[in-house]
Amino acid sequence: MEWRGRRGSGNIEDRRGMGTASAGGLGLIGTLVVLAVGLFFGVDISPLVGGMQGESRPGAERQLTAEEGEIGQFVSVVLADTEEIWGDVLPGQTGLDYRDPTLVMFSGTVQSACGGASSAMGPFYCPGDQRVYLDTDFFRVMQRQMGAGGDFAYAYVIAHEIGHHVQNLIGVLPRVNSLRARVGQADANQLSVLTELQADCFAGIWARHAGERFGSVQRGDIDEAVNAARAVGDDILMEKAGRAPMPDSFTHGSAAERSGWLIRGMESGEMADCNTFAEAGL
What we know:
The chain is an alpha/beta fold. 52% of the residues lie in helices and 9% in strands. It contains eleven helices and seven strands.
């Protein structure tokens, strides 16, 4: 993916190095509260929670490394690309205006309008403040523990979270949260899966239009994104954590589902083809 030297976004808030607590700062109870609230929409790596806690750092303020600085520039460029693409696609296909979200980069733990979360929760979107939260160490986890490295794989993660922002703008997230509060656990899990798969499809729409508009997609980039989508499938994460996959407990979708909906968005480029809820009979 060609990103160096390109325009970055001004909607970045960098909290890395600001003296936040370590990744384990919330403790088990705090993590369970976040899981129970059901307001965080992101890449669920809770089955690999120990891996991120192993990367925790003390809370003293510090200077960012050169590597962290470069990662921040990369995130800024990807976010700028999503702003430009969705700034055209959303009004063009729905008649609604796109409002740019803010992306917060943090280290260890973070506070949001949805509450507190640790790095172990993975990247997430909070509808309450319309912000995406990302501990950039997650990219290292993707490469080392998930076998899903590469710039375009990381860009897919950001685009997936922006997909949740799009869902919020079109009213999907408020409806999902309302429904989840009134149904049993199995049905609530299914609603979460459908929400995540639609965000994957929206990420595919971004990838298609970004490739056409910016010419930044290189050979092999699509394979990186598809591999990343598979790597964050619930079944794969459970297997890596030594647990038997249990479909009724899935909240984000299987590897095949996640990669399949990402590919659908890439091939179509149309939001109407990303209606996971309609295909599920809802």
